Amino acid sequence: MRTVARHWADFQYEIYLNGMAGAVPRLPTDLTRLEELAEQRLGPGPVGYVAGSAGSGSTARANRSALERRRIVPRVLRDVHERDLSVEVLGRALPAPLALAPVGVLSIMHPDAECAAARAAAGQGVPFVLSSASSTPMEQVAEAMGDAERWFQLYWPRDPEVARSFLNRAEAAGFGVLVVTLDTPLLAWRPRDLDQAYLPFLHGVGTANYFSDPAFRAGLAKPVHEDPNAAVTHFVGMFADPSKTWPDLAFLREHWDGPIVLKGVLHPDDARRAVEAGMDGVVVSNHGGRQVAGSVAAADALPGVVEAVGDRLTVLFDSGVRTGDDIFKALALGARAVLVGRPYVYGLGLDGRPGVEHVIRCLLAELDLTLALSGHATPGTIGPADLTEGPG
Ligand SMILES: Cc1cc2nc3c(=O)[nH]c(=O)nc-3n(C[C@H](O)[C@H](O)[C@H](O)COP(=O)(O)O)c2cc1C
Ligand SMILES: CCCCCCCCCCC(=O)C(=O)O
């Protein structure tokens, strides 16, 4: 089930060769600079929505420092001439341990929105996880991707008919993995959005899967175009259900045949409950610091979850990944693969599909070089011994 190894580090040579012809990259190769550029070039509402997080931003900052605090201890004189970043995740052969995280309402960043990001992911062979809250109906995104690997992220609607309909549509449209986000039963206190009174969903943006859904529409007195405000109100009441508990997962197991991954798991006991509920994986994530202000950093939670269930579930990771060495560290802490969020969204906002491609290629070229320069030829040999903590 292995993919053909791609030579990610060739991107480095491509950049230098283009330089000989007088061309430099359109976007920075240090992806931590994208946020600042986006702040300068994109509108305050959209960029505030993407860059913003819960409360004073302490969780988002903690995500970064938990990754930065951990330092790689490189090994030398190991043969790293031939390298292969490919990994198997949930029965799928991926070219690298990376997927694009589900991010809602991408049309606020670029008119080509989810289709542009999905095409970029497909072109690089990286799975695209489509948000329930996308600006484009799932069938249209699927069509843009051909037969490339795609996963569907579920915000579990309160109405079981709508939930069932979403699952049926996603399956029919070729989404192979269901990612159920559990950390957003309510929208958190997000000062950047509150201060601007900015929430695109209330204008019917990011509601495409709902407004195109027959079960959702059946709950409306009038068609969406005749009474859009009523449709938005119905969406707000439908979007999530804070009364859900662990036994409710049986509903999803019953209606989804493929792998199911729970996103937003941080406690080892919750990971154990995911095993008991027959789930296939978890994403150790705090939603990029956008939900619980003062939450544990995702990278600090990762080792505990891996220790509890790493032999029984596929453990994925996100929240704070900005560089190739961040990916290396997450793998060393036991993640099978990582999801990248904001960087690809800034890439999209700044340069559309090529911007997203740039982000994927930079991350994987840097990962490949970090791997090699640390003494590894494949992700499979990376482990906790490759990291140290503290001022070292
Ligand atoms: C603008 C924005 C929208 C998001 N929308 C969703 C979503 O619809 N569903 C979801 O599960 N996670 C969503 N997330 C969270 C991401 O999937 C991911 O957990 C997070 O971005 C990772 O943190 P990072 O951006 O710091 O890498 C969103 C994140 C951002 C920044
Ligand atoms: C008043 C609540 C309206 C609906 C909220 C939509 C939820 C946000 C979906 C995107 C997301 O996950 C994010 O982090 O932002």
From TrEMBL:
It comes from the Bacteria. Pfam families: FMN_dh (PF01070). Its cofactor is FMN. InterPro entries: Aldolase_TIM (IPR013785), Alpha-hydoxy_acid_DH_FMN (IPR012133), FMN-dep_DH (IPR000262), FMN_HAD (IPR037396), FMN_hydac_DH_AS (IPR008259), LMO_FMN (IPR037350). Keywords: Oxidoreductase. Signal peptide: none annotated. Residues 23-392 form the FMN hydroxy acid dehydrogenase domain. Belongs to the FMN-dependent alpha-hydroxy acid dehydrogenase family. PANTHER family: FMN-DEPENDENT ALPHA-HYDROXY ACID DEHYDROGENASE PB1A11.03 (PTHR10578:SF143), S -2-HYDROXY-ACID OXIDASE-RELATED (PTHR10578). This is Oxidoreductase.
